[in-house]
Amino acid sequence: MHLRTDIGATNSSTTGTTHNVPEDLETDVLIVGAGFGGVYLCHKLRDELGFKCKIFEAGKELGGIWHWNCYPGARVDTQVPIYEYSLEKVWKDWYWEEKYPGHAELRRYFDHVEKQLDIKKDTYFDTRVVAASFDTESAKWIVKTEDGRTAKAKYLINAIGFAAKRHFPDWK
């Protein structure tokens, strides 16, 4: 399976920690994407079910599309509390400023989520997956990154979301 490599822009308004993927990375679960889905899966599989999990994220911070969508007026189209995690340790001390939060508030929300769930310790930022294949002999996924590194995982989850493909309107 070959994956897209067209998400090449960076969001200079955020500053994340960039980790280099080790040459010999092997894990139970490899999640591609650190948006709402990827972050939740990492927490659920790692903290509640005991799997060894790692995330590969193309951006420099948690948030998925909310790392990339930083244009003026960017906001959600679903009101909170629907657009948040239902985990008590996340929502119990978080208070939204708006019913339909904008980009800046969502960035603060993901900072809060990080403080509660400690996801970054298992996330490799600035890491783009370019290929993945299943090796039947080892019963593992072999995942290649844009910088030429290889990782192995028993399970591979693509949590790249429906809005992962960038679109540039044909405007002058």
Q: What would the average pLDDT be, to the nearest integer?
A: 86
- Biggest sheet features: 6 strands, mixed
Summarize the helix and strand pattern as letters. EHEHHHEEEE
What radius of gyration results from the CA coordinates?
16 Å
Low-confidence spans: pLDDT under 50, at least 5 residues? 1-17
Shape: globular
Secondary structural class:
alpha/beta
* Gap between N and C termini: 35 Å
**Please, how many helices?**
4
Q: Which range best describes the helical content: under 10%, 10-25%, 25-40%, 40-55%, 55-70% or over 70%?
A: 10-25%
Strand segment tally: 6
Strand order of the largest sheet: 3-2-1-6-5-4
**Beta-strand residue percentage:** 15-25%
Keywords: FAD, Flavoprotein, Monooxygenase, NADP, Oxidoreductase
Family: Belongs to the FAD-binding monooxygenase family.
Cofactor: FAD
InterPro entries: FAD-binding_Monooxygenases, FAD/NAD-bd_sf
Structure description:
- This protein is α/β, with parallel strands linked by helices and about 170 residues long.
- The chain is about 20% helix and about 20% strand.
- The protein contains four helices and six strands, in the order βαβαααββββ.
- It has helices spanning about 35-50, 65-70, 90, 105-115; strands at about 25-30, 55, 125, 130-135, 140-145, 150-160.
- It has a six-stranded mixed beta sheet, with helices on one face.
- The longest helix is centred in the middle third of the chain and has 15 residues, at about 105-115.
